[in-house]
Each structure stands twice: as C-alpha cells, then as structure tokens.
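Technical annex B. To support the medicinal chemistry partners, we prepared a structural model of the target in complex with FE2/S2 (inorganic) cluster, based solely on the information shown next.
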Amino acid sequence: MTSSPDSETIKSPQRRSWLKVLFGLVAAGTVVQVGRAFGTFLLPRIKENEFGSRIDLGLITEIPTSATEPKLYPVGKFWLVNNDEKLTALHSSCTHLNCMFTWDGNKQVFICPCHGSEFSRQGEVLKGPATRNLDQFPVEILDADNHLVVSSETGLVLADIPAEKEGTEAAKLKLCVDTGRKIIGETKAVL
Ligand code: FES
C-alpha cells in the first residue's frame, strides 16, 4: 500500500524543520566548544598575584630587616627571609614529601612536622629525611612602570638595589617574587 501524495506533502516540511533544528543544535554546540578552546588558549590561566605568577609585596620600604623573623606569604607559598641583607624567597614546601614546614623561633630553624626534616634560615637542609635544600623563587625589584630593575634567582643582595633609577625614587620601587620560576635546591649528604 502506498501513501497518498497528501500525507507526503504534510510530512516533508515537518521533517525538514526537525532537521534544521538538529543541525542548528549541532552547530551551536560546535561554536561553544571552539569558543571554549580559544578562550582557554588566549586567556592567561594564572591570575596576577596568584601562585605561579609574580607576587607583588609592595614598596621596598617594606623590606624586612635581617633582625626580622622569616615571614610566610601563603598566597605565594614562600617564606621571605632577610639573611644578612640578602633577601631570599624559600618555597614553603618540604623537599622530602612536600609537607608545609614552619619556623621555630626558639631553635631558629624551619621544621617539617611530617617526618622531622630541618632547614636553616638560608634554606639549607640540616636534618633528614629530606636530602635537598629548600627550593627558591627569584626575588625582583620593579620600577613604578613594572620594568625590571634588578633580579636574583638565589637571593637578592640589598646593596644591589639602585638608590634611584632614571627618575624613579627608590621609595617607589616595588618588591616582587616570581613564583612562576622555581629554583631547585641542591642535594646534600645529610645524616
Ligand atoms: S615531608 Fe617533610 S620531612 Fe617528610
């Protein structure tokens, strides 16, 4: 039995409009996926002042003195330490199994609560099971326009900070730590 011409003419336009809707949905889905892919590619994945980026610590007038205890910056995951006028940013993660260590003001060492590793104020491993010095991040000085003035991978000597830089008063220079570039600590023979 064949269908009547009348029923065909009724079904065809309906089928076509369903197909249009289906194609429309597929096309919209594809556009969304492509847009997402471009967004992920073009937008920076790490926001400013988050771990993995350059952390702004404020004006250099805020630099801790060598008499100051090490200070933890949780956002940047580092301890800022002034050791005899050399500024160091020590990664706050133990080089044994990545626990967060703390500063013991009485013993003047960093102590890891997990397995007891100890590190000096300079980040040197003093007691195992850790066998590596603490990792570090570069410390930098930027001018008011965010141009790099001076940088050091393993501790910034404060005497190297220029008193002035092409019209920028020293008081306007900024202290930053680049947590996007980790300097791996040296391996040591520890008892
Ligand atoms: S994780 Fe620090 S001593 Fe094991």
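Notes passed to the chemistry partners:
Residues 5-42 form the longest helix (38 residues).
Helices lie at 5-42.
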